[in-house]
Specification:
Layout lengths: L2 H9 L17 H8 L24 E3 L3 H20 L5 H8 L3 H29 L1 H19 L8 H16 L4 H9 L5 H26 L6 H29 L10 H6 L9 H9 L2 H31 L4 H29 L2 H22 L5 H15 L2 H13 L4 H30 L1 H20 L6 H17 L15 E3 L1
Parallel strand pairs: 1-2
InterPro entries: FLVCR1-2_SLC49-like (IPR049680), MFS (IPR011701), MFS_dom (IPR020846), MFS_trans_sf (IPR036259)
Family: Belongs to the major facilitator superfamily. Feline leukemia virus subgroup C receptor (TC 2.A.1.28.1) family.
Catalytic activity: choline(out) = choline(in); heme b(in) = heme b(out); ethanolamine(in) = ethanolamine(out)
Length: about 500
């Protein structure tokens, strides 16, 4: 028996070791509206009982320990890709001199990630619905690996075009990454841990950004000798390629589509509709007509677009006020992301405990705006320790917002595909990321960093107002709550609203 067969035999739940086709997971919204009365009903964290005329039958649910293995594999895969996004921009002054290019060219080595995402996200979301989670992750990790190896041959001043092509291939992998955390969490994790799992999935990308801020300034010192510089750049590229290769092999061998038995009643109901009752095009149109979700799409894009611009232009902002501090620029970026990872994890745990999606999203958005203003007005004070402090505050809230947007979107759009909703969120973020990066870069060149950061703060204010206008309609929570209410009525026992499915008669841990 091969390693793959052994792993499947011990960890897969189907009799033949294969998961059912992923497209069986999707549902018809009209059918679910009839079953769950979702069309006009709202649920808040304070709700207790929601009436339904014909509640769906309860189904068996189960949590599998290997869900953490799937999450870890995605974590390191996303981490590898995010590292390669920032390995140029955080030492942009060094690469500009090495390749003989201007600031716009070096910025496009980062912005190509945003541009690639926009035209490819709709076909990749279609593939996610029709081919499943495993195929998407395998293909994405393959692109990530191929792009990394292309860049290993570009440590020469005449190879900018080829290194740009390698970065483009890596950017294609991003399309197969950014929409996955909410989908992976919903497919594998229980009701009371799904937001935490989504946060951890997002943390993989943030960890890669953190390493991308920290490692390149260490591996590639600002030396004058071109041959020595080429040697250091080649070492960084080969390390990236080696890590990407190991991750690709692990994904091919280990990563699985979904558990045999769903983790929640919401997922069980989402699997119950036949594939021919689901239309991808109709799903997109329903999402575009969902006003609360579309408001979230815009506000999410504004917030994350600002984060992308700050990340891409961080080296230029720091070097302008603190010349020769390339290493500290990377450390400040690392501070932003580590603080953001803490914020993401706290927000995920908080959502699992309280289910206060809109309230938490709104408060974090306001704090992101405040942190951006504080960072803007303290960057030029001449004290690096102040920049570390304010940048950490910015990362805590702005990066902590990422999983909030994903999870709030899933609640507003259930039972639509989690990959579709998160894909539209990320598409908005990429569009605003390009606009903000180009605009802020030009503003910094003409008027300085303060004007550029005030420019971003204005759009964060607009996003805060839009977030306040979103109507909270927590459809996924409604489905899970109805299942719990039905359990209470069928067993005659009293059960708290906050009780987890894992603690009920219907969910067991293996």
């Amino acid at each position: 028996m091969s390693g793959q067969d052994l792993f499947s035999h011990e960890w897969m739940d189907g009799k033949d070791g294969f998961s059912p086709p992923a497209r069986n997971e999707r549902t018809n919204l009209g059918e679910h509206n009839r079953q769950l009365s979702l069309g006009n009903g709202n649920i808040t964290s304070e709700g207790s009982v929601l009436d339904t005329e014909d509640p769906p039958p309860l189904m068996e649910t189960r949590l599998y320990k290997r869900r953490w293995v799937m999450l870890f594999l995605f974590f390191i895969y996303s981490m590898s890709n995010a590292f390669m996004w920032l390995q140029y921009s955080i030492i942009s002054n060094i690469f500009m001199r090495f390749y003989g290019i201007n600031t716009m060219a070096i910025d496009w080595l980062s912005m190509i990630y945003f541009l690639t995402y926009i035209p490819l996200i709709l076909p990749v979301m279609w593939l996610l619905d029709n081919r499943g989670l495993r195929d998407i992750v395998v293909v994405g990790s393959a692109f990530n690996c191929i792009g990394a190896w292309i860049k290993t041959s570009t440590a020469h001043p005449d190879m900018f075009a080829m290194t740009f092509f390698g970065q483009f291939v890596c950017s294609v992998a991003t399309v197969y990454i950014l929409g996955i955390p909410s989908r992976l969490a919903s497919l594998w994790f229980g009701q009371q841990e799904v937001s935490t799992a989504c946060s951890i999935g997002v943390l993989g990308n943030q960890m890669g950004i953190a390493i991308g801020f920290l490692i390149p300034p260490i591996l590639v010192p600002n030396v004058d000798d071109v041959n020595e510089l080429a040697y250091h750049i080649k070492i960084m590229f080969y390390i990236s390629a080696g890590v990407a290769t190991v991750i690709f092999v692990l994904v091919v061998i280990v990563f699985q589509e979904r558990p045999e038995i769903p983790p929640t009643q919401a997922q069980a109901q989402a699997r119950s509709i036949l594939p021919d009752e689901y239309s991808y095009t109709a799903s997109i149109l329903r999402l575009l007509r969902n006003k609360p979700f579309m408001l979230l799409v815009v506000s999410y894009g504004l917030n994350v677009g600002c984060f992308y611009a700050v990340s891409t232009l961080l080296n230029r902002m720091i070097i302008e006020h603190y010349p020769g501090e390339e290493v500290n620029a990377g450390r400040i970026g690392l501070t932003i992301v580590i603080a953001g990872m803490v914020g993401s994890l706290i927000c995920g745990i908080w959502l699992d405990k309280t289910k206060t999606y809109k309230q938490t999203t709104f408060i974090v958005y306001i704090l992101s705006l405040v942190a951006m203003l504080v960072y803007a007005f303290t960057l030029n004070q001449g004290h690096l320790w102040v920049v570390f402090l304010t940048a950490g505050l910015l990362g805590l809230f702005m990066t902590g917002y990422l999983p909030l947007g994903f999870e709030f979107a899933v609640e507003l759009t259930y039972p639509e595909s989690e990959g579709t909703s998160s894909g539209l969120l990320n598409c908005s973020a990429q569009i605003f990321g390009i606009i903000f990066t180009i605009s802020q870069g030009k503003i910094i060149d003409k008027w300085g960093t303060l004007a550029g950061n005030i420019f971003l703060s204005i759009f964060l204010l607009i996003g805060t107002i839009i977030t306040g206008l979103i109507k909270s309609d927590l459809r996924r929570q409604k489905a899970n709550l109805q299942a719990e209410v039905q359990t209470v009525s069928s067993t005659g026992s009293v059960q708290d609203y906050g009780a987890t499915a894992s603690g009920s008669h219907w969910q067991r841990q293996s």
